[in-house]
Amino acid sequence: MTEIETGTDHLLARLEDGVGTLVFNRPERRNALSGPMLDALARMLARFELDEEVRCVVLTGAGGAFCAGGDVKAMAGEPGGDARSVSYEAALHRQRISQRETSGRLWRMPKPTVAVIPGAAAGAGLSLALACDLRYAAQGAVLTTAFARVGFAGDYGGTWFLTRLVGAGRARELYFLSERIPAEEAERLGIVNAVFPASELEAEAAERARRLAAGPSIAYRYMKENLNRAVHGDLFECLDMEAAHHLHTGTTRDHAEAVAAFLERREPVFENR
Q1: Contact of 201 with 137, CB cutoff 8 Å
Q2: How far is CA 164 from CA 24, 106, 160, 190, in A?
């Protein structure tokens, strides 16, 4: 395992077996977001996207929580917070860039992204989890949009992602009422893919992440683009794009290896070529 310097203790990073893991690390605040954390998250996602050694990205939190979202104490300008005295225009520009380079990059990154949710995921923390391709939660974890409780409309793409996961009516209810959703209910709604006992979550998620990292990366790249386009694209545009991507991946060495492995009744060894 290789530990990677992120520039702040608020975000940890490591690389092992093709899996790049990013850990929110403010356990004393349930991993509430900070300026340094968000800046580091944007930098590390950009680095992981281009690093060929990273074939799957995992996002998780330290100390039994995923991420509590915005730091309410910092919003109140308490000592130790990171509230800034900047103009509205400067704050808006910074927010737009941050959202595009975190939630936006997780969604469009041509590699599988996985949120591992050991505990609370709230507000923008939930939004970042929703931006990932897959989500696995621990029994006892609680998810909530939370924004209405602090008088915010919501950020980091949560309204967009949640609407596409659960439908417009349910997403509105979850945003307006900001109810706490137990992990099992989140699985029933399709917000998380699976729920595991807390003691097993890390191992179960790691096994799936390693499988993704060992998989056909070129196929995953185009598969994800197809799936993303399917969310909002015209059917016939999606059909045409699927055709192009399908034929292209059929020319790769990974495809040839998979066919050979199938005929030889063994697991394929993909080269990302």
Answers
A1: yes
A2: 25, 16, 7, 10
Residue 57 one-letter amino acid: V
56's CB contacts (< 8 A; 6+ apart) are 18, 19, 20, 111, 112, 113, 114, 209, 210, 212, 213
Would you say the pTM of this structure is higher than 0.70?
Answer: yes
Distances (CA, A) of 255 to 17, 170, 245: 21, 40, 13
Contacts of 40 (CB under 8 A, 6+ apart): 6, 7, 8, 10, 11
Residues 6+ apart with CB under 8 A from 20: 13, 14, 44, 48, 51, 54, 56, 57, 58
Cα dihedral value 272, 12, 99, 177, nearest 10: 110
247 vs 207: which has the higher pLDDT: 207
Domains of the chain are 2-213 (3.90.226.10), 217-264 (1.10.12)
Kindly tell me the sign of the dihedral angle through the C-alpha atoms of 201, 202, 206, 209.
positive
CA distances from 231 to 160, 169, 237 (A): 10, 17, 12
Rounded Cα distance between 217 and 272, Å, is 5
Question: Looking at this protein, which amino acid is placed at residue 42?
Answer: A
Q: Reduced to 3 states, what is the DSSP secondary structure of residue 11? A: strand
What CA dihedral angle connects 92, 94, 96 and 98, to 10 degrees? -150
Q: Which helix (H) or strand (E) holds 124?
A: helix 124-130
pLDDT at residue 245 greater than cutoff 80: yes
